[in-house]
Specification:
Blueprint: H1 3-16, H2 23-38, H3 47-67, H4 69-85, H5 91-120, H6 124-147, H7 157-169, H8 177-187, H9 192-218, H10 221-224, H11 229-254, H12 260-279
């Protein structure tokens, strides 16, 4: 891994983590495109590459923490006083509980799927198939949302459950986390801004957990000392900066425009990936 590759992957992660196009799929595509052109076997993936992917996600976590810092503070504050007073009537306290509930549902689904998800990393053409399915989901969510006369700006337990399930399924590369959670929010009757905001806030515990747990469990400290830390740190910083800008402008975009453009992108990128990686196996 060199500096140019790390910058490129940082940009890809920062853009695709919050846009409904699957960041994991794009990291798989970018990494494997690079391997094809360098003549490296796709089946080979080092521990350093896996750790670098985790660090890129940590960069986008930093972005969402900075962008939603006021929301996070208000939610944490409301939860503290709700526990103290044993009263969860406050809307921010309820939102905090929905995030906790959605996270538990996500973990319950994601853990059994994790081994299969890691296996898909070595089969980018299959990831392309899942990306096509993400595009279909985005189209259907827009169609159904337009049919609804009434849309909600606050969640309930059922909506939090459905979005948590969507985030758990989206552990599979090609199933966009933001795409599936936002689309599910629209399915469940949430308005566009509320669905996107909850999607981004719900990502915080999962990304935080993955970026802490994986290195502690699977990374060899001695081996990690030999990693290209300059490239890793630069890529992480780039993903944080690009991720912050992506959230800022995507929140404005989704309040006014359809997700269909991302649906078309997923279809085109998915079919291209299937064709490319079936030719260059």
């Amino acid at each position: 891994m060199n500096l140019i590759q790390s910058i490129l992957m940082g940009i890809v992660q920062g853009l695709s983590e919050f846009l409904p196009v699957s960041s994991s799929a794009h990291l798989v595509f970018t990494s494997n495109f690079y391997k094809v052109f360098k003549g490296i076997k796709i089946v080979s993936q080092s521990n350093e590459e896996i750790f670098f992917d985790i660090m890129l996600h940590l960069g986008t976590l930093i972005a969402v923490l900075i962008f939603f810092r006021k929301d996070i503070f208000e939610i944490a504050r409301a939860l503290f006083f709700a526990c103290k007073k044993r009263n969860i009537s406050d809307s921010n306290a309820k939102l905090g509980l929905y995030i906790i509930f959605g996270t538990i549902i996500t973990i319950a689904l994601a853990l059994p799927l994790n081994d299969f998800a890691e296996h898909l990393v070595y089969h980018p053409a299959r990831v392309g198939c899942l990306l096509i399915l993400t595009g279909v989901v985005l189209f259907f969510s827009e169609f159904l949302s337009k049919k609804r006369e009434k849309k909600f700006d606050k969640l309930n337990w059922k909506q939090a459950l459905f979005v948590g399930i969507a985030q758990g399924i989206a552990v599979l590369p090609g199933f966009s986390r933001s795409g599936w959670t936002i689309a599910t929010g629209l399915f469940a009757g949430l308005n566009r801004e509320t669905s996107a905001r909850y999607s981004f806030l719900l990502s915080i515990p999962i990304i935080l957990g993955a970026s802490m747990v994986y290195p502690l469990i699977k990374i060899d400290i001695i081996e990690a000392l030999n990693y290209n830390w300059t490239s890793i740190i630069v890529g992480t910083i780039v993903s944080a900066i690009v991720g912050y800008l992506c959230i800022k402008y995507f929140m404005k975009f989704i309040s006014k425009f359809s997700l269909n453009i991302f649906g078309w992108y997923c279809l085109v990128m998915g079919f291209f990936t299937i064709i490319f990686f079936n030719i260059f196996k």
